[in-house]
């Protein structure tokens, strides 16, 4: 791969530039006070002394409303177990087993990696997912397994997706031609349909004083992620691009895709769950800081003591010296009653009450904007909501969760597709394996579902219906059971229903047998004679 220039390597997409400030805010508000302070979202008031500002930011705190919204939506999205997973064709594949057990080469299970990516997609609107394969030399699958070389998932937050290019393939469909990514360690990673390469920018050893073209004023690139802060510091002097590694892309397509939280009109920008909430949450944090200042001001009132003119008879003294002590504050000269000291009486109640009312309104709007006011109605609402209002909120929440689940299912199947292509199994298994996700997120109690199931069971006389109903009930009651446990339960349900069906058939045959029926009738007649 051709080595790009420093300018080409740092160049970002115009859509990246438009959204960079929003991503920074979303991450900061989710992480909390320390991140907000670090990124300058709590500035000093123009009339605030530096000492007062430093004291105020030390006492700063947040209620974490944006984080609460993200956590609630993520919980409901992953609360129900995956359904419709068709992976039996991969059960005996040891490479798939290694991938599923450690999907990011950091010891994290596939489901944990997926939940992490979905969480940050909820915060930022979307995430980038690269399905790469470890480098190594092997000739057989056994050598590959022994070397533990298999595809893995690398996730990228939007600030790390620097640039991309799209084109049209022979089928007149859009296809990703190039993507440029920034890794945690400051390495630039470029993928095209034909090849891939990694590069770093390093300072030249050339004497900076002899540099005729220094890069001056190049900003610091800050990438905030779930791990430690990633920073590429650019200083004075000549810089150069150093190639690290490169190779041929055997897939002939870029193994990267956008993991959307919610789709927008823009194909490369997702909608964050705190899009309309983050700034309101930041405003609440600032309001609480103001309340603390008012309380501190009320707790430590200031003394007011006028500077009185000197005795007129003593013309040589123009101003009377003020003296302050307990005795002087408690005593004053009756000839000069205006010299009696006063304590400033700050009117705090009305100001604090006004700010608290404002905060309460903002909190209600935060949950309303997220369509979760019904879930938190007892905490954030002072008035009971009507059943219609709650139903509407739950329907809107369900709609968002269904959209998120659809995007999640698409992402899982895209990961599966790239895995199979890396292992050259796509043509063989593409019609046999599939990931599925539940699309039912109605907020209702499991007991209601069970009651409805029991009612339906007495009306619909079908063994197939009863088998499917019992399987669904088992998944609702035990959402955390594994796929192997589900298979065992499903098998036991089918066997149980089959036995009941056989018993029913036997009973019907016995009833239809004339001799058996005659014996039963004779026996009943004998019992009747004995009783008489």
Q: How many strand elements?
A: 12
Shape: flat
User: Mean pLDDT, as a whole number?
Assistant: 76
User: Helix coverage percent of residues?
Assistant: 40-55%
Supply Rg.
35 Å
What kind of sheet is the major sheet?
5 strands, antiparallel
| Distance between the amino and carboxyl termini | 105 Å
Structure characterization notes:
The protein is of the alpha+beta class and 532 residues long. The strands form four sheets. It has a five-stranded antiparallel beta sheet. Strands 2-1-10 form a three-stranded antiparallel beta sheet. The protein has a domain at 446-532. The protein is built from 18 helices and twelve strands. The radius of gyration is 35 Å and the shape is flat.
Describe the secondary structure blueprint for this structure.
Blueprint: H1 6-10, H2 14-31, H3 33-38, H4 50-58, H5 65-79, H6 94-101, H7 110-124, E1 126-133, H8 141-146, E2 151-156, E3 161-168, E4 174-182, E5 188-192, E6 195-203, E7 221-223, E8 230-232, E9 239-248, E10 256-260, H9 278-299, E11 303-304, H10 326-330, E12 342-343, H11 349-369, H12 377-380, H13 387-422, H14 426-429, H15 446-459, H16 463-477, H17 483-512, H18 514-531
Antiparallel strand pairs: 1-2, 1-10, 3-4, 4-5, 5-6, 6-9, 7-8, 11-12
Helix pairs in contact: 2-9, 5-7, 9-11, 15-16, 16-17
């Amino acid at each position: 791969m051709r080595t790009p220039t420093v300018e080409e390597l740092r160049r970002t997409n115009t859509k990246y530039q438009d959204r960079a400030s929003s991503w920074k805010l979303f991450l900061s508000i989710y992480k909390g006070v320390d991140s907000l302070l670090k990124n300058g979202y709590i500035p000093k008031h123009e009339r605030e002394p530096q000492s007062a500002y430093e004291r105020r930011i030390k006492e700063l705190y947040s209620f974490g409303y944006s984080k609460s919204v993200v956590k609630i939506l993520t919980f409901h999205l992953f609360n129900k177990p995956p359904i419709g997973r068709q992976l039996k064709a991969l059960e005996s594949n040891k490479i798939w087993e290694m991938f599923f057990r450690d999907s990011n080469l950091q010891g994290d299970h596939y489901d944990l990696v997926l939940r992490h990516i979905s969480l940050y997609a909820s915060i930022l609107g979307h995430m980038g997912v690269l399905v790469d394969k470890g480098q190594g030399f092997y000739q057989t699958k056994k050598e590959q397994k022994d070397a533990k070389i298999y595809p893995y998932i690398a996730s990228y937050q939007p600030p790390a997706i620097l640039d991309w290019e799209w084109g049209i393939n022979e089928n007149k469909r859009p296809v990703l031609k190039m993507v440029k990514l920034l890794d945690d360690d400051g390495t630039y990673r470029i993928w095209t349909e034909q090849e891939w390469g990694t590069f770093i920018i390093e300072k030249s050893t050339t004497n900076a004083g002899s540099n005729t073209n220094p890069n001056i004023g190049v900003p610091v690139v800050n990438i905030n992620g779930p791990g430690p802060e990633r920073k590429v510091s650019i200083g004075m002097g000549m810089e150069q691009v150093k190639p690290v590694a490169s190779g041929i892309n055997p897939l002939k397509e870029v193994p990267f895709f956008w993991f959307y939280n919610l789709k927008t009109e823009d194909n490369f920008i997702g909608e964050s769950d705190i899009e309309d909430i983050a700034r309101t949450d930041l405003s609440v944090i600032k309001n609480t800081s103001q309340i603390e200042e008012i309380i501190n001001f009320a707790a430590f009132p200031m003394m007011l003591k006028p500077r009185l003119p000197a005795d007129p008879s003593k013309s040589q003294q123009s101003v009377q010296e003020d003296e302050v002590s307990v005795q002087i504050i408690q005593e004053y000269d009756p000839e000069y009653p205006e010299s009696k000291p006063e304590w400033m009486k700050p009117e705090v109640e009305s100001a604090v009450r006004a700010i608290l009312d404002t905060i309460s309104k903002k909190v209600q709007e935060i949950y309303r904007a997220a369509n979760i006011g019904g879930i938190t109605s007892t905490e954030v609402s002072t008035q009971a909501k009507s059943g219609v209002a709650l139903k509407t909120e739950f329907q809107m929440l369900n709609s968002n969760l269904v959209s998120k689940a659809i995007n999640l299912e698409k992402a899982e199947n895209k990961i599966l597709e790239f895995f199979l292509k890396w292992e050259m199994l796509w043509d063989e298994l593409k019609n046999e394996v599939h990931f599925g996700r539940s699309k039912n997120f109605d907020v209702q109690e499991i007991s209601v579902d069970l009651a409805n199931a029991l009612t339906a069971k007495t009306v619909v006389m079908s063994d197939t219906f009863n088998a499917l109903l019992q399987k669904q009930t088992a998944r609702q009651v035990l959402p955390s059971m594994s796929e192997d446990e589900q298979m065992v339960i499903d098998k036991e349900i089918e066997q149980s229903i089959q036995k009941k069906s056989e018993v029913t058939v036997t009973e019907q045959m016995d009833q239809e047998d004339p001799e058996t029926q005659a014996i039963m009738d004779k026996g009943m007649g004998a019992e009747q004679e004995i009783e008489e």
